[in-house]
Amino acid sequence: MNIVLIGYGRMGKAVEELALLRGHVVAAIIDNEDEWHKQHKGIKEAGIAIEFSTPGTAEKNILRCFDAGLAVVSGTTGWHKGFDRIKDVCLNNGHALFYASNFSLGMNIMFEINSKLAGLMGKQEGYGILIEEIHHAGKKDAPSGTAISLANEIIKYHPHKNKWVNKPAAHPDELEIISVRINQVPGTHFVRYDSDIDSLEIRHTAHSRKGFAHGALLAAEWLYGKTGCFGMKDLLYEKE
Question: Of 135, 158, 189, 204, which residue is the catalytic one?
Fold first, then answer.
């Protein structure tokens, strides 16, 4: 595949390194407004873009890719309020988008466990719920997109939680998310259920960004040649 990388921070560099090892071509790297114009030739030669940019630029970047005829794999978080609009543009105009708040295969398996666990624990009495996410100090959004995905699935399946808050919960229907920022932490997420009798916890710890880069490239290889809007469940369940 000929790939356009949009965003050239830690994740962009990790994707580039692994893409070259897997035999792909990085046709263009875009990390600022000027490069959209300077990299025109590379963009035209590519078939897919992998986008890890910023919450404020993600929507514009994806729409530009659609206009250029590129399929898009996006892992930028913090712009979830605009997702439905982007999805509509994708589906109504025959484009291709693969979005995930976290491309780690292990984390996406945890998403599945989290949903099932929420349904089971919602039938029990006396358990409080807490989500904690820990990331590097440079991460711009809090809570993380991954923590929001975990929270939304708990709210979907747990009968006593109606919304999440990124602060100490003040009401029983609130699901508390704690965000911690520490240097050099790729990402740790855990969901904990506590009662007077016992505690139950599920946790995912990323050891490096290689797992995210690997998942993003698997998504790009899977998406190539397709149209529609997809996520990690589509990739994971097709692998069964």
Answer: 135
